Amino acid sequence: MAPVSHFERLPCVGGEVVTITIDGEAHEVDSRWTVAAALIAHGHTRCRCTPEGQSRGPFCMSGVCFECRVDIDGTPNRQACMTPVAAGMRVVLRQDLRALA
Amino acid sequence: MRERHPDVVVVGGGLVGLAIAHGLLRQKLRVTVCDEGDRDFRASRGNFGLVWVQGKGVNSPPYARLTSHSARLWPDYARQLQRDSGIDPGHTRRGGLSLCLEIDELAEKSAAMAALKAHTPGFDYEVLDAAGVRRFLPGASPDIAGGIYSPQDGHVNPLQTLHALLAAFEALGGTYLPRCRVDDVSHRAGAFSLTTSGPTLQTARIVLAAGLGNARLAPLVGLYAPVLPVRGQVMITERVAPFLPYPTTSVRQTTEGTVQIGDSQERVGLDDGTLPEVLVNMARRAIALFPLLRSAQVVRTWGALRIMTPDGLPLYEESRSHPGAFVATCHSGVTLAAAHSELIAPWIAGNDAPTLLETFDGARFAL
């Protein structure tokens, strides 16, 4: 099923287009977006699961709720809403708890 | 109008006040709880969640017995709380460990445990070297000196516990008044009248369980509660796969996977902030105990003010000048919650003072 986004993309001034991957799939995004904005724009509103198996995604967009945590460039549990995108960034949506090693 | 003339008014809606209030409802009394607001100092929303026996009352046999008794009551109390509230407080009692990096610290702790065992019936412990600790906690560093294991120790989810207490209180018909600061208490013809920022309340019995607020409130009813704030800072990591099957005094993992780090104690007055240098030390020590925490990310930190009496022991007393007015305060509101509900509530309801509580009055603070 095609991902559905309920968000409308407003015109963005001054940014350039960069490419990031979300779960391995390449997406062109505005360089001034946060990772959370990129996730929402591409329909990834469920980016992780609670230990009870409920879906969670970007919510507060301001660093408070910690619901939008994703793996970014190999570092797990980063707050997507507090991280600007960068060219070549690899974002992975994780559905399980990672093990410390 | 019913809630303005209850049998008992409990001042304080934290773990201590709600545990007593829950017990009072089970004594078939009509109870109103006056609580303050979210922005006030709330030890019950910032604590560590241990139900802890080892190390409590090493120099005070009555405190050791009370602690041990409450830990024993907790499994049944957790079930009662869940029945009354529908919320699982997350209690487990499989034992817990305190860990030592240095051999001197371990020797000191072993001596303290021997003293505790000598005056505490039913208390057991084991002194472990690093290999012994790693049988319980495979993630512990092989370089630590060792630790103490006690099967009597356990933990709860402290926020779920607070939530369960409040839900149980309301489900059993109690009246909870948030943002209801008690400004004054007057006593006439055996009845108390409480002036609050909300309604004026009339009652025959009043329980002061207001934590740090007890210092101001106790003298209004002829009691003395010289409590002071002690700040504890806490660090919360991202949720990770389970690696800590037992709680320790400074690091524990919740069932959801979160690792909680916190064993600081500072006397800084009414300041519940955090300090990077304290947090860095806590993190260093946690990593020395559990090297794999090196890669864990901290997602939150906070400071909370715990309540400390001059000797660190709880305070339970009925006023002589104002019979029917009680004070209850302690710094282990989680560990003692079961005793507060099962022992203190019947006493306030009119039963004889339980022998387990009789050495905890305020006379010991008099000059």
State the shape of chain B. globular
Largest sheet of chain B: 6 strands, mixed
Would you list the SSEs of chain A in sequence order as H and E? Answer: EEHEEEEE
Number of spatially distinct domains of chain B: 3
**Cα-based radius of gyration of chain B, to the nearest Å:** 21 Å
Which superfamily, in CATH terms, is the homologous superfamily of the largest domain in chain B? FAD/NAD(P)-binding domain
State the low-pLDDT regions of chain A, or none.
Answer: none
Taking the sheet with the most strands of chain A, its summary is: 5 strands, mixed
> What portion of residues of chain B is helical?
25-40%
Q: At the first level of CATH, what is the class of the largest domain in chain B? A: Alpha Beta
Secondary-structure content class of chain B? alpha+beta
Any idea what the radius of gyration of chain A is?
13 Å
CATH architecture of the largest domain in chain B: 3-Layer(bba) Sandwich
Uncertain residue segments of chain B = none
Provide the number of structural domains of chain A.
1
CATH superfamily of chain A: Beta-grasp domain
User: Could you please say which CATH topology of chain A applies here?
Assistant: Ubiquitin-like (UB roll)
Oligomer: heterodimer
3D shape of chain A:
globular
